[in-house]
Amino acid sequence: MDAGRLIEITDPGDARIAEFTSIRERDLTGRQGQFIAEGTVVLSMLAKAHGGSGPVRAEKLLLLKNRVAGLSDVIDQFPADVPVYVAETAVLDAIAGFHLHRGVLAVGSRAAPPDLASLVSQLPDNALVLVGCGISNHDNIGALFRNAAGFTADAVLLDETCCDPLYRKALRVSVGSVLAVPYARKESVETVLGTLAEAGFEIWALSPSGTVEIGGIKPGRRVALVMGTEGEGLPAAILERFHSARIAQAPGLDSLNVGTASGIALYAIARAMGRLG
Amino acid sequence: MDAGRLIEITDPGDARIAEFTSIRERDLTGRQGQFIAEGTVVLSMLAKAHGGSGPVRAEKLLLLKNRVAGLSDVIDQFPADVPVYVAETAVLDAIAGFHLHRGVLAVGSRAAPPDLASLVSQLPDNALVLVGCGISNHDNIGALFRNAAGFTADAVLLDETCCDPLYRKALRVSVGSVLAVPYARKESVETVLGTLAEAGFEIWALSPSGTVEIGGIKPGRRVALVMGTEGEGLPAAILERFHSARIAQAPGLDSLNVGTASGIALYAIARAMGRLG
């Protein structure tokens, strides 16, 4: 790494790092298309995404000075026109508005997600997609993406009532998978499922009242798994119109966490489709 | 519900509700055997546990005044000698030290967990136990218990380096399962696994480098599943000494979240053991 590349910040009010000020509050407002990446693993995913042909770009890095040496390999993956700002702990904490344990931040941006129809039209013949309906919890959205990546899903299709996966915490919980897995998030769940059905997808809604146990299904060539929220679950109209599956478990308990349930169901389906080697 | 049972608190400094003051900070100190239960579902689990023959007792409830009517069924499950304190929002927030969305709190206590040998000796012939090694994250501990309950595990055995499952957040994430599933947490992982091996348990350590894919194992009559941390995983000595299993997934990615991985593995094993109906 060329040490001349590092730009030292000593004033928390410096305009060059304005995107990082009070990032907790800022996160709540959700800046369209721009996002904060946190931690080494997500930074590394950002570097990969920036180098690819996808919609994600890195804008700038802000690092704790004493972390720089250990991060030189990752820094080198960013082209020279991505500025790397460094600061001491006190300055960094004053910028962020709280104590940053890790001291690794970046700002990235991505073009508006593709529209649903064009994303679906680009999916391979043998495709697995994960659909989220009404998932507003940032941890759960992050978990959906982490599991989608882990179990080879080709895309994540969120309905318009799901929260933005670019939120700082969702991105962190996804371990950066939000930057790697294609997704859409503009349409109603009816439109998403209608588009998938027209494209020949077999649609499985997951629900504690599902008619088939998930480990017993024989999935087709193109499969969509639909996840609802923990409390209300999926709308009855969806459960009636499409296939529904349940995860066998101890009777009389609260259902599983959405992230865990999506992991179990994706694992079972991807395995039955022969996608997991 | 007898409204005469409700005791109104108007002074945040009232000694009768001292256990609830500044519960966030208090949580960090971890009071031996005493715990804070939060939310309706956990309160309901506390009522059940208090009524049972186990080590868990409810000491007192503190509720937001406008939540009382909706909670009368749950309140009635606690015997009359468990005091029910009520307060308005401003008083309750001043007591807790932050804004409580839900307004449902209780203090409970439990006797010291049983020692490992006596807990293991009480397990049924056909048993499934979950072992945690080095799990220090409160969310992950909570997830282990939630999944253990969901997939019929008879006990959770934590090594001495795991965090206390009675922490407020672990208890909340477990949706109260910490109060229902028997557990121990005093010994080293070597002692835990040695005790289980002597008691005839087949021991499966879960690891990305495991030799058998988890969906393909034919488990015996008594099975223990061992989970390590996300970063370091399980010690090599454990992976060498016992059976090891992996969850098939996309190559080259960070491993799954511990909670999700425990859910997938417990589901696969409990299903193969014929425990899930």
TrEMBL record, chains A, B:
InterPro entries: Alpha/beta_knot_MTases, Ribosomal_eL30-like_sf, rRNA_Methyltransferase, SpoU_MeTrfase, tRNA_m1G_MTases_N
Pfam families: SpoU_methylase
Signal peptide: none
UniProt KW keywords: Methyltransferase, Transferase
A GO term, aspect molecular function: RNA methyltransferase activity
One of the protein's GO biological processes: RNA processing
Domain tRNA/rRNA methyltransferase SpoU type: residue ranges: 128-267
This protein's name: tRNA G18 (Ribose-2'-O)-methylase SpoU
Species annotation: Rhizobium rosettiformans
